[in-house]
Amino acid sequence: MTNVLSNLRPFVLPLTLILMVCAVLLAFDRGGASGAGIQRVAIVQHASQGAIDAGVKGVRDALASEGFVDGKNIRLTMYNAQGDLPTANDIARKVTDGSSDLVITASTLSMQIVANVNRQSKVRHVFGIVSDAASAQIGVGVEPLDHPPWLTGYTSLASVPNALKLARELNPGLRRVGLIWHTSEVSSQIYTRETRKACAQMGIELLEANAENPTEVGQAAQSLVARGIDAFLITGDVVVLVAADSVVKAARAGRIPVLTVIPPTVRKGTLFDLGLDYEQIGRNVGVLAAKVLSGTSPATLPIINLAPETFYLNLTALEGLRDRWQVSDAIKARAALVIDKDGEHLKAAAR
Description:
alpha/beta; Rossmann fold; eight-stranded mixed β-sheet; six-stranded parallel β-sheet; about 40% helix; about 20% strand; globular
C-alpha cells in the first residue's frame, strides 16, 4: 500500500491544480448567467441584406465603444436565418433557452419570432431595424413604455412620401409606380399601406404584385414591367430586398429605374435610396443594449422612433432609361453617396 501511495504522489499536485482550474471555470461560466463576469449576448438577423448588415455592424461597433468587448466581458454569438422561417424559429428557441443573457434582434421578422418564443422565458431582448413594433402583435403598445418588461428597442420607419416627391423632381411625368411585396411580412404590410396612401395623395397610379419568397420576385417584376409602369419602388420588404438584383434586371430590360427607401441598395443598381441610416440606427440600438447589460431594466427604457435620413444616388442607373429622368446639381449635392462611372464618392460627413 505504501508503495502505491508513493507511486501516486507525483500526480497529486497536477491533479489538484486541474480540479481547481475546472472549479474556477465552472464558477465563471455560471457567473455569466447571473449577470456577473462574462455576459452572453446573441445577435439575431433574419437575412443577409444591406440595411440589416449595416445595422448589425452599428450594434457591434457601439457595444465595443461602450466597453462591451467580445471575449473580454461579453461572449457574442451571431445568428442569421438567411431568410428561412424554420431556421429563424430554431434560432429563437436556441437564444431563449437560457443560453443567452441578452438577445439583440435586427429586422421586424427576427423581433417577432424571438419575442413570441420568449413570452415564457423572458430573456432580456433589445430590437432594432424595425418599422413598427406596435403592429407586430408582440405585446408592444403605442405608448413608449407600453411593452413587456424584458423587451425594448427602437422603431425606424422611412418616409415613402419623401421618396415619391424626389422621384417627381427627377421625372415630373412620373405616373405609374410598381410595388412588389410579401403579404405575410408585417414590415411590408406597413410600407404598402404607406405607399398606397402617398400615391393616392400625389395622383400616382400604384400597380402591385406579390412575392412570397425571393425566387418569385423576378417573375413579379417582369409582370409589372409588362403592365407599363414608369418605375419600381422597393420598400422595407426583406423578401424583395434580398432579391433586389432581380428587380433591377427586369427594370433594365424595361428601361425604367428602381427607387428605394432602403439604403444601400444603390450598389445593386437602383437610381436612388432615400431612406434611413441603418448603421447609425444600429449604433443607437447598441448603446441601448449596453445600458441593459450594465443593469438598466428594459422595463424603464421607452420604445421610440429613430429615423435618421440619408440619401444615396447612382447616376449610372440613368443610362438607357426610356423616359427623361434628370438629376440637378442641387440634388447631387444632397446625396451622402454618389455612384458614377468613376466609382463611389462618399461625403466626408457620411464616412
